[in-house]
């Protein structure tokens, strides 16, 4: 079990930044980040998430028109902008990822099941990325305010991937953040049966 310092890093004291320090994130750290994300559980080990890390100015400028106005400054200031995407044809990898199962045929025969599974498990992997980033000392800002079609056409069309959300990564300037927003209490959000 993690001690309080570990829980602080991941949850209790972790905050979502609004601004970023000008400190770069090294490519080796992004590789380490993905290696942790890839270990998170997905149903049938389907692993549908795909990630595009935007670090260069040219990529940022291609992304800018797709951002909602309220997100431009927060996103463009991040050292890394990850497009958290998923591969609708993830099942083509299942003979390698789950070799003792006959899962590929299930998804290949049912587009609705494949889409639902890819979106759900790709979202899980995006959440793993947030936790892994925090565990590695990075801050994370998830963003859903963007034009999905524009992001897919600009960055993902070649592979046929679908955009889920954006995840800004880096070292946040958290000194002037307002107090943490309220959360629902246990009795409001949970029940026993």
UniProtKB/TrEMBL annotation:
Keyword terms: Oxidoreductase
The keyword Metal-binding is assigned to this record: no
UniProt domain Nitroreductase: residue ranges: 15-171
Any Pfam family the entry gives: Nitroreductase
This enzyme's EC code(s): 1.1.1.298
Molecular function GO labels: 3-hydroxypropionate dehydrogenase (NADP+) activity
Protein name: Malonic semialdehyde reductase
UniProt superkingdom: Bacteria
NCBIfam families registered for this protein in UniProt: PRK05365.1
PANTHER family with a match to the protein in the record: MALONIC SEMIALDEHYDE REDUCTASE RUTE-RELATED
Species this protein is from: Acetobacter cerevisiae
């Amino acid at each position: 079990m993690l001690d309080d310092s570990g829980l602080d890093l991941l949850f209790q004291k972790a905050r979502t930044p609004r601004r970023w320090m000008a400190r770069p994130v090294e490519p080796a750290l992004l590789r380490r980040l993905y290696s942790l994300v890839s270990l998170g559980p997905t149903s049938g080990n389907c692993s549908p998430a795909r990630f595009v890390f935007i670090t260069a100015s040219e990529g940022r400028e291609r992304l800018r028109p797709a951002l909602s106005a309220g997100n431009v400054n927060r996103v463009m200031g991040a050292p890394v902008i990850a497009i958290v995407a998923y591969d609708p044809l993830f099942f083509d990898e299942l003979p390698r990822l789950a070799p003792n199962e006959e899962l590929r045929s299930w998804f290949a025969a049912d587009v609705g099941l494949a889409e639902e599974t890819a979106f759900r498990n790709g979202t899980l992997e995006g959440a793993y990325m947030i936790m892994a980033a925090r565990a590695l000392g990075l801050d994370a800002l998830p963003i859903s305010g963007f034009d999905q079609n524009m992001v897919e056409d600009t960055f993902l069309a070649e592979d046929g991937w679908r955009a889920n959300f954006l995840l800004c990564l880096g070292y946040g300037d958290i000194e002037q953040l307002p107090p943490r927003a309220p959360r629902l209490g246990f009795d409001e959000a949970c029940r026993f049966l």
